[in-house]
Amino acid sequence: MKAVLQRVAEAGVTVGGEVIAGIGKGLLVLLCAERGDTEVHADKMLAKILKLRVFGDAHGQMNRSLQDVAGGLLVVSQFTLAADTSSGNRPGFSSAAPPAEGRRLYDYFVARSRVAHPVVQTGQFGADMQVALVNDGPVTIQLRIDPGG
Length: 149
Description:
Helices cover 23% and strands 38% of the residues. The chain is an alpha/beta fold. Strand 1 (2-15) and strand 2 form a beta hairpin.
C-alpha cells in the first residue's frame, strides 16, 4: 500500500462541479492499494498516518501528530501512485490492485479511519476528481507498507 501525505492548511475535492469534501488544517492522503495488499496493510498505514509527527510544536519542530493537533483527514483514492515508468513514456499500472479490490481496501481504510479519528472526509472512488489544497510548509511525505512484509 502506498500513500502520499500532504500537510495542508485546507484541502477539498470537487466532482462534477460540486464540492464533495473539505478539511481545514490536517492531512490530505492520496492512497493506493496494490496487488497483494490486505486489511493488515491498511491498518498499518492508518496507524502510521495518525501518529506521524509532521505538525509543529510550540518551538516550530515537527513533534505533533494529526491526532495531537485534532486536524482533519482527507482520504482520496489514487491508483496512479502504482505507476511503473521504467520503460517507455506511458506509465503502466499492473501493480495496482484490481478496481474491485482497490475499492474494498479503500472503503476499509476509510471505515477504520472514521473509527480512529473524529474528522474524516473522502474523495469519490473511481471518479474524475479535482483536488485543491494549500500545502502547509510545504510538507509532503511518501509512505509505503510493503505487501511482502
